[in-house]
Amino acid sequence: MSSTPGETSAAVPGPGQGPGFGTGPGSGTDPGPGPSPRPGHPIALPHFRNLWIGVTISVLGDQFYLVALPWLVLQLTGSGLALGTILMTAAIPRAALMLVGGAVIDRFSARRVVMFTATSRSLLVGTVALLIWLGVIQLWHLYVLTLAFGIADAFSFPAGPALIPTLVETRQLGPANAMLQGSTVVAQMVGPAPAGLIIRRWGTAVALFFDALSFLAVLTAIVGLPAPPKAPPPAAGAPARPSMLHAIAEGVRMVWHDPPLRSMMGLFGAINLCVAGPVGVGLPVMAKLHFGSAAAFGTFLSCFGGGTLTGVVLAGMLKQSRKLRPQMLLMGALTGLELIAIGLVLKAVVIGTLMAAMGLAVGFVNVQFGAWIQARVERALMGRVASVLMFCAVGLVPISYAAAGVLAMWSLPALFAGAGALLTVISAVAASSKAARVDPLAARRSE
């Protein structure tokens, strides 16, 4: 489950290796006979370390954008409706183009895709910051900015999962994912406060200039990675390269014809559908109506972030579990019960505790699930499979937000209890299915 509604993705060269990528899957390095030595921590690999540093700086810059954008919209319009339409302008193309993004990554390499999207985003944010600085910013400029960001997200989001297996060994995937997700959570916890202080002291233009510059960190890391090797020219009489639609369909078919993968992605999507709306819409409304303080909302999110960080660290320290599906089913059921409890017990301490417990489960399973997919899926399909996963994570968020907005106007307890009950039922039904009795780590694809 995506731990935030937000929005930055790391860059990654897709399939294809080069010197210095280590001996990970597909590197072509023969470790020789005998048992393989235990791999070291991925932080020792220069390319991964540089990527991690670049992504961390970029995600920190994103927090300035995520605070500055809503503040700027409200300064210009004073309208919550305008803010909602701005956010939807990014969410719709992100969801609509996510599967296309995965196919493009597999065809042209994630490295090239992220270099283009990061450069474009840096220029776009820098331009908007300049317009603010000159005092000529208008609302339509922000619609253009968020539309372009939504399109870029659709291509950059699937890139990270496709890149990491090219930089580290299979047994290093868990710690590598934990490092990237952990630094993201830390940035989300510590970034908004200084962003707010900078906006109050110097204005939104300075905050957006900082975000524009932060993209240079990930660009520097990506440029330093070896370019993927060029594909050999097609042999005489070879069939033509399949169309983009065929490539997208191939990735979707791969997920559909892999029952453990299909069922786990379905559960992943259900968790996001049931959680994003109550957390993103229900919690701030609850903080305003029942606690009368934006600080309450911030505290609840900090509790969730702290729990997520704890789960990420634990998952990075432990060996990948062979009971991944039961873990996800248990997480889904417990998260559903926690949502029900939040709706019924309107006490700040209880809500903060439940959010921390929810975050811990989310962080732990996210790392384990991501590493499992990266080790399981063929390299040539990784971008497309990652795009299906990202679609499950963010593609259904607009639907969840819309439904939560309607229910929140009617009854907050009904919103949380209804979403929790739905998620609990889905988890129970999934637990009784045939796929639930399959060990996803043992059931490897035979193709």
Structure description:
Residues 1-34 and 439-447 have low confidence and may be disordered. By secondary structure, this protein is mainly α. The chain is globular, with a radius of gyration of 22 Å. It has a single domain (42-226, 244-437), classed as MFS general substrate transporter like domains (Growth Hormone, Chain: A, Up-down Bundle). The chain is 74% helix and 0% strand. It has helices at 46-77, 80-96, 98-108, 110-134, 139-156, 159-167, 173-190, 192-202, 204-223, 244-256, 259-291, 294-317, 324-344, 348-376, 382-395, 397-410, 412-431.
The major pleated sheet works out as:
none
Residues in helix, %: over 70%
Q: What is the CATH homology-level superfamily?
A: MFS general substrate transporter like domains
Overall structural domain count: 1
What's the N-to-C terminus distance? 29 Å
Number of helices: 17
